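Hello forum,

I keep getting stuck at the same step: I have a sequence, I want structure tokens, and every attempt I make locally crashes halfway through. Rather than fight my setup again tonight, could one of you with a working pipeline run this one for me? It's a single chain of 472 residues.
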Amino acid sequence: MAEKLWKGRFEQPTDKLVEDYTASIHFDSRLYRHDIQGSIAHCRMLAECGIIPHEEASLIVQTLGEILRDIERGKIELDSSQEDIHMAIENELTARIGETGGKLHTARSRNDQVALDMRLFMREAISSILDLIGLVQSSLVEMAENHIGVVMPGFTHLQHAQPILFSHHLMAYYEMFGRDFARLRDCLNRTDVMPLGSAALAGTAFSTDMEWTARHLGFSRVIGNSIDAVSDRDYLIEFCSASAILMMHVSRMAEELVIWSSAEFAFIEISDAFCTGSSIMPQKKNPDVPELMRGKTGRVYGNLFALLTVAKGLPLAYNRDLQEDKEPVFDSVDTVMATLRLLSKMLPQIRINTERMARMAGQGFTAATDLADYLARRDVPFRKAHHVAGRIVQYCIQAGKELGDCSLDELKSFHKAFDEDVFAYLDVSSIIDRRESVGGTATPRVKEAIARAKAELKSRQPGSKKNIETDE
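Reply #2:
Ran it on my machine without issues. Output:
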């Protein structure tokens, strides 16, 4: 059984059931690298401030490096008696170099140590997720550019509404993921705050240099209140919130991929590499990957509510409840990263049934709005024009025909303003390219949107003149 760092206050050993119940090492062991990184910075700061001798600091730093290598090689066994990764590493340190190892914990508490480790972890995780969002957006832009001439029916209420460019539909998801990118970038800014040196909650009586530690660890600033430093989990909740919204966007796209790949829609075919078969029905090709993306969205939602529930009734400052912050966060990080990585690979391999999309774009009376617009341009009040177009649609339904099947005489029987040019006006390509309003589906507008997106993605690349943090 590992010796507790806080054993001096207690007469009895910890009950084994308590050790198992309170242990977090089985999930926080993934923080070992961040814990050692923070400990090395803290140790060097102690030496710089003259709190411990430089030679002792060098020994501690060297030994921490050896422990890091041994953990990565699987040479150090971690068990529940060690409570958490922070104790496990410190116990290993003191076992190797004796009491000198105990000096590492000078001027810090596990409270600010844990807070630091999580911020270090989240900085890396959010940065990786931002890169993955960029990959998904790049896939969408490439698909949009490659299919710029493809038309499809746009939907409201899952009913045919108006013809649009398929590229326009794809770029709607680009915008969604762009907002996700911005939210997580903002979250990263609030994550990038250095809490180490706040100790248990009141700060430390040693003359430490938190700014030095922050610079050494690459933090942009030091936290402003020691109580807040050890109790703040806002950035984790914010991350889970942004992740929930991100996964909602993924789920919406996944739903469309599922229904579009059905025989009823037949708009797309998902690559075999991202589908599975049936154990009993030989003909089946199931869109399991997008279905699981929809399903995994629920667990990310659950992680957000778990964190909110843990934090909602906690008095300041640290409470052991906060140990429950890690598993939901780790799960959201892993789920989001795996989902985005898979999505970015799946999208380019989807085959688009352009003929089917184009055929369906003109069905379901998708030109009805333009029929009303045609009359409105001939000085017919729009409400009257809308009524006339509705009556024509009703007539076509009863006659079993589409709007384009009507003769000029049939149209004139509903209103005298119709003329021969109405048929060109109702052509699908003409309908699309008249939508030249900002953000519209007209081909030039969609091409502009694609060009802006490509420029935006390029600006995020390292070495770009545009600053990703300030957009300046």
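The chain has a mean pLDDT of 94. If your local run keeps crashing, start a new thread with the error log.
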